[in-house]
Task: structure prediction
Amino acid sequence: MQSLMIIKYGDLNTSLEIQEVPIPTIGPNQILIKTHAASFNPLDYKIVRGDFKAIRKIQFPRGIGRDVSGVIEKVGEKVQKLQIGDKVYSRIDENFVGTMAEYVISNAADVALMPSNLNYGEAASIPLAGLTVYQSLIDIAKLSSGENILIHAGSGGVGTIAIQLSKHLGANVTTTTSTNNVDMVKNLGADKVIDYTKQSFLDVNEKYDIVYDTLGGQHTVDSFKVLKENGRVVSIAGELDDITAEQLGLNKFIRFILSMKARKVKKAASRINASYRFYLMSPNGKQLNELAKLYEKESIKPVIDNIYTFEESIAAIDYLSKGRAKGKVVIEFPN
Result:
C-alpha cells in the first residue's frame, strides 16, 4: 500500500515522501480500516519540524497522521460490536500513527461508528480535534452552563469545535480571530468576538471563568491576566505541567527542565489561586460515540477549510503549517 512517510526532521517539502509499505497486520483487539479520508493537525507538522525531538525522538521512516475515516476491512478475533463493512472513524493510538495511508490499523476501543449524517471527509475532520476539545472542556475544565469562557483562535480546527461545544454546554463564549473570520465564528455561536488585528484580548474589560489556550507562548501567561480568581486555564500549546510530564513518562531531568520553563505560568496562576493544565488528548472510542451524537443532532457541525487528494498531501500539510486554515484540512483517498 502507499503511505506518506516522514523520512527526516526538517522542511515539510523535503522531509515527507509517499512510499510503498506493507499493509499492517492486526491483533486480536484491533481492526483494519480501508482509508476513505484522513486529516492533518498542527501536531503533525510540528513533529516533522522536530519541535518535540528533545522529549521523544522518532525512528525514520515514520508514518504521519492520527485521524481517519473509512470502512472496516478486517476485525480481530476478540473484537465485538464492530464488523467488516462498518463505516467508522478513529483517532488512532500513537503506536499505529500513519493515517495518511491506504490502510490503517486501530485498536477497537479507539473506534466509533461515523456520524450517520456526515461524509467520510467530514468524519475524518473530527477525531483528534474533537476529542481534544471534549476532554479539555468537559473532563479537565469541567465547563458548566452560565460560565464565561475565552477561546483563543476560534477559527482553527480546535477552536471551531470548542465554540460549538461550549455553546452546547450553555457557556457564554468569547473568542479571538482575525477580521476575515469574525462572521464565521459568530455563525458558530460565539457571543463576543475579539478581532486581534484591531484589539488585544488584554484590553477588553472582561474576566473569564475559563481560558482555553490553543496558541501557547505569551498567550498562556497573559491568559491569567483576564482570568477570575480561582479560574482555570487549560492549554494545548503552552508549557507542560507536572501531571502531563509524569503521564508522558519523561525522566526526572527533562521534567526539571520543563518545570523551570513553566515557572512564569505557575507564578501567574498562584497570584489568583487559579489552576493550570496542559492537556494532551487520549484516543477514546466511547467519547467519539458521544461526539457522533452531537454531530447527528447538529449541535456541532464540521468546519473544513480545504480538501486535498492523497497525492497532494504534502501540499496540504504545508498549507496547514501557514496557520491560516479555517477549520480542518482533509485528505480524501481514491476508492
Observations:
- The two ends are 13 Å apart (CA to CA).
- DSSP finds twelve helices and 16 strands in the chain.
- The mean pLDDT is 95.
- The chain has two domains: 2-126+302-332, 129-278.
